[in-house]
Amino acid sequence: MSVALSLCLLAIMVLAAIGTPVAYSILVGSIVYLAVKGQDLAIAGEQMASGLYDSFVLLAVPLFIVAANIMNAGTISERLLKFCVATVGRFRGGLGHVNVVSSIIFSGMSGSAVADAAGVGRIVTEMMRKSGHYSRGYAAALTAASATIGPIIPPSIPMVLYALVSNTSVGYLFLGGLTPGLLMGVVLMGMNILYAHRRGISADEAVPLSEVPRLTLQAFPVLLMPAILLYGIYGGIATPTEAAAIAAAYALLLATVFYRSLTLKAFYQVLVDSARPSAAVGLVIGGALVLNYIVASENIGTMIAQALTGINVSPLAFMFGINLLLLVLGCVLDASTIILVIIPLFIPTCRELGIDLVYFGVVAVVNTMIGLITPPYGILLFVINATTRIPLAEIIQEIWAFIAALIFALILMILFPDIILWLPNIFGYAG
User: Fold this and answer.
1) If you average pLDDT over every residue of the chain, what do you get?
2) Is 49 or 14 the better-scoring residue by pLDDT?
3) pLDDT digit string (tens) for 110-140?
4) pLDDT digits (tens, 9 = 90+) for 217-263
């Protein structure tokens, strides 16, 4: 490791340790590297500008954020919840199932775990609390865990970011995430069934069957959105970025014309609330692009690949080792930083070992989503705490069982790649 790279990493770690935002820490560390190397500091700006403005796929990120915020601002989330209560709320531990199923459906519209947790997740948590059957810590923990499904089932903002650094097809990544997302939902519902039996929770009062068609009809335009997105992408009608624009336009159409629940003032607030996270993601991407230039200059990815292939590491051992590392990093780093900065280091090794990049990408994204609920940094824990005022200690106490369930699902994905690659192969993916 060169002196310049050592000083770069030291600057990033020191700045991050004193509370500097990760994006700024990376940018400052990168400038330190360029200065010590005697290179033109304008390279940092050139890498950011070329990377951000040449990547058409990145436009999908703010568009999906806008779509999710429009749905949360209108009555779309409430109509979705009423449909879920009518269909799965009648079973034992019903509101817990509603929590998971609503996240699965909402994930097919937003691609954001935070949007899921802060929107429909906040509402269903309050419903679980008021029912009297669930502790508030359990309700919040299940909401945080189910929100991790949001970026796995397409569309997915993290998979767009992974596609940026790996040159992998966004469409095939989206397809690869569908079955794993459903698997995550199944294991979480399994944990909820165990909880309901252990606590002796009876079935909630069921919505009359005569009401189900009416509630389904009310929610049908919302349920149609994932189908429109998937048909648009895989039918060859729209690119993933164009599909994101369609999602935002369709959400706006539903909220303003069909349901008439979004005022002009509320729409302005949606745009403001969408601009902030979009800008934050843009800064992280910009810093990561400069850092990736440094990593390429130092030839780190190739060095790691040669070192691992030199000691004859099997693909399965590599996958387990990397995922263990990512789980640890997820405790202290946000998902965007891991995807944009850490994961690119191992892509050359994947190529050397013959590991499919769609398979690797989906597994890595699932791993980083588990990091969103892993203490001490788990951002979803803080989002739920802020939106529900449930003490963080109570949420953390209940979250461990769900982390274990999601890690079990992750292990299944690592051991059985067809869980991920089955759908992409059906649609012509050749690896």
Assistant:
1) 83
2) 14
3) 667 777 777 777 778 888 887 777 888 998 9
4) 877 887 787 778 777 877 778 877 888 888 888 888 888 888 787 78
Residue written as tokens 């690869």? 176
The rounded percent of the chain whose pLDDT value lies above 70 is: 93
Convert the chain into a string of H (helix), E (strand) and C (coil): CCHHHHHHHHHHHHHHHCCCCHHHHHHHHHHHHHHHHCCCCHHHHHHHHHHHHHCHHHHHHHHHHHHHHHHHHCCHHHHHHHHHHHHHCCCECHHHHHHHHHHHHHHHHHCCHHHHHHCHHHHHHHHHHHHCCCCHHHHHHHHHHHHCCCCCCCCCHHHHHHHHHHCCCHHHHHHHHHHHHHHHHHHHHHHHHHHHHHCCCCECCCCCHHHHHHHHHHHHHHHHHHHHHHHHHHCCCCCHHHHHHHHHHHHHHHHHHHCCCCCHHHHHHHHHHHHHHHHHHHHHHHHHHHHHHHHHHHCHHHHHHHHHHHCCCCHHHHHHHHHHHHHHHCCCCCHHHHHHHHHHHHHHHHHHHCCCHHHHHHHHHHHHHHHCCCCCCCHHHHHHHHHHCCCHHHHHHHHHHHHHHHHHHHHHHHHCCHHHHHHHHHCCCCC
Q: Are 159 and 364 in contact (CB under 8 A)?
A: no
Contacts of 320-325 with C-beta under 8 Å, sequence gap 24+, read 320/414, 322/346, 322/364, 323/363, 323/364, 323/367, 323/410, 323/414
**Residue 381 or 81, more confident:** 381
Two tokens, residue 360: 């690797």
Closest CA to 214 of 28, 393, 67, 82: 82
Q: Over the stretch 294-345, which tens digit does the pLDDT of each residue have? A: 877 877 767 776 666 667 778 899 999 999 999 988 887 778 888 888 898 8
Q: Cα separation of 292 and 55, whole Å?
A: 15
Paired with 92 in beta bridges are 203
Residue spans per domain, the chain: 40-426
pTM of the model: 0.83
Which pLDDT score is estimated for 231?
A: 79
Instruction: Show the tokens assigned to 402.
Output: 């769900």
